[in-house]
Amino acid sequence: MRFPESFIQEVVDRTDIEELVSRYVTLKRSGSNLVACCPFHSEKTPSFTVTPAKKMFFCFGCHAGGSVITFVQKAENLDFPEAVEFLANRAGLPLPKESDVKEEHGVPRRRILDANLEAAKFFRACLFDEELGREARDYLFNKRGLSEATIKHFGLGFAPNQFHMLLDYMHGKGFRDEELVAACLAGQKNGRTYDYFRNRVIFPIIDPAGQVVAFGGRVMDDSKPKYLNSSDTAAFKKSRQLFALNFAKNCSSERMILCEGYLDVIALHQAGFESAVATLGTAITPEHARIFSKYTQQVVISYDADEAGQNAAEKAMRILGDVGMEVRVLKVPDAKDPDEFIRKYGADRFRSILEESKTGFEHKADRIFSKYDLSLTSDRIRATSEICAVIADYPSAVEREIYLSDVSKRLGLPTDVLKNSVEQIRRKRARDYKATESREAQATLKNFRDTVNPEAAQHLHAAAAEEAVLGLLLLYSEYRTIVERGEIALDSTCFLTEFHRRVFEAVMELHRSEYGFRFEFLDERFTPEEVGRIKRLEVERSKLTNNGLEVFRSAVNALKNSKEKETAAEEDLTARIERLRSKKQEKQHKEG
Q1: How far apart are the C-alpha atoms of 169 and 195, rounded to whole Å?
Q2: What long-range pairs does 109-115 form, CB within 8 A, spacing at least 24?
Q3: Tens-digit pLDDT profile for residues 210-261
Q4: Helix, coil or strand: residue 213
Q5: Distance in angstroms (rounded) separating the CA atoms of residues 535 and 532
């Protein structure tokens, strides 16, 4: 069912967009607006703008934009009903009874969160059950060295080696099989439902708001798979969550430590390093990087010392660097991971090596030089080529000079020679980038690759006129009134592209409704990407100084003229085809 428009309006009115967005990015005042680096794409120069007076946002880089509802949809990866519920809960507004909106599997997000909380209680009770949890307690206390206080702090639990124990418990709490499957607490095979987690230590995944959104499970021996994690659900997207962020966010202003596994993080927290977090069974993503940028300035990557761990660290460095993070790399000596190191050498020793963590460049240089025998000419050439390509990646000339000076000593080569190689690489990359940018710009001009309005490429002039008309209608209610009264003849048949036609119909329908047109009402009818495009139409039009009535009238006339020309061209083409067909038939008749 749909939310009443009055409820949507109240939700938006009660939401402070500045306070909401500042939970995701650091906003800075710029006149009457607020600016920041966009949370939806990687950038180093702020192009993301919030207009508090209108409760709207727009990014001039990736063109995301819209209302507070659109923002939550994109930031939390929610659909429209979930985003409204999210904001309503923040504002303390009870949901209307008639709007119990269902998820794609027929299960509301709130129901999944309730199921997760109840399951977490079950797993914890099993862990501390005298018989059921004996092996799991021995594993956590004795093999992993965790204290009872730490285990309770993280809400750890245990899933018994049974197929229906959790199911029976959850049924007793009123949860149905389809709800447990949607929450990834149960699986189904051959029509039978079974407990998803069995014979595993359980790690609840808790979001920054304190909600149990998912679970991870680890075996207590060497069986495979070692880890079993919740799949994405209506309440959980692994690419947007970090394990222990609910704790780390409160003490991470100086730096955060990025680990590979749950137990590494827990061991670090127990040892006093409470800014440690980990990704959830997946490699780091740009979304993770933007989460880090909200809470800290520096990330120390502490991955496993094996080749796979170090390759993952290289990738993490690139992704974190793209959002402007200061990145350092910690390679623990004489241990495979931070957990083992702390158990062998203690917290004080770990603190010492943490302070000695290397910059991203130092780590990359060490890995490159360790691959080659620099006493061999051929290896020196290959090492020089690789390290110059790395130095060329850094935009700061000062950084490049410092790194060149260091590398020249290690390679025994003059700094100027290395510098020339680096600048040659940078010039080639600049040429390649400009060529790519030019191709993309030309494609954009012709509306190619336009996934929101793909028909624009077929109707270039009409699409431009449609954009002008819609921009003016979005900006000025008086033009909507003029169209409504018929003072300027304009209806949906004047539009050639289906997307622009839908926008026009939605805008005018809302204008005629009880509550009138409000931008946030569009969120229910369009995807976040489409809402961003609509917002772009408004923003681009607002940049122009002359938007008077005659301009609107001219834009409508231009649209109609484009429609007439294209219609005439289509009719002319049809007529020509018909004439050719007639001639062909006449010729065949004569020959026959």
Answers
A1: 11
A2: 109/78, 109/82, 109/85, 109/234, 109/235, 110/85, 111/179, 112/179, 112/182, 112/183, 112/233, 112/234, 112/235, 113/211, 113/212, 113/213, 113/235, 115/170, 115/175, 115/179, 115/180, 115/183, 115/185
A3: 889 999 999 998 888 889 999 888 788 888 789 999 899 888 668 899 998 8
A4: strand
A5: 5
Residue 315 CA to residue 481 CA, distance in Å, equals 54
For the ranges 172-181, 233-242, 385-394, 442-451, the maximum mean pLDDT occurs at 172-181
Contacts of 98 (CB under 8 A, 6+ apart): 1, 4
Q: Each residue of 476-520: pLDDT tens digit?
A: 888 998 998 899 999 999 999 999 999 999 999 998 886 788 899
Question: Exposure pattern of 373-392 as b/e (b: 16+ CB <10 Å)?
Answer: eeeeeeebeebbebbbebbb
**350 with 271: CB under 8 angstroms?**
yes
Task: Domain of residue 24: give its range.
Answer: 5-99
Spatial CA neighbour of 258 closest among 211, 222, 295: 295
Q: Buried (b) or exposed (e) across 92-108, using 16+ Cβ within 10 A?
A: ebebeeebebebeeebb
Rounded Cα–Cα distance for residues 61 and 46 (Å):
9
Indicate if the alpha-carbon torsion angle 471, 474, 475, 481 is positive or negative: positive
Does this model's pTM top 0.90?
A: no
pLDDT value at 50 more than 60: yes
CATH of the domain at 488: 1.10.860
Distance CA 17, CA 25 (A): 12
Question: Does 582 reside within a domain?
Answer: no
d(CA 3, CA 393): 50
Number of domains observed in the structure of the chain: 5
Q: What is residue 228's three-state secondary structure?
A: strand
Looking at the domain assignment, is residue 553 inside a domain?
Answer: yes
Find residue 328's DSSP bridge partners.
300, 359
In a domain, 290, yes or no: yes
Output helix, strand, coil percentages for the chain, rounded to the nearest 5. 55, 10, 35
Residues 6+ apart with CB under 8 A from 280: 205, 214, 216, 229, 238, 241, 242, 243
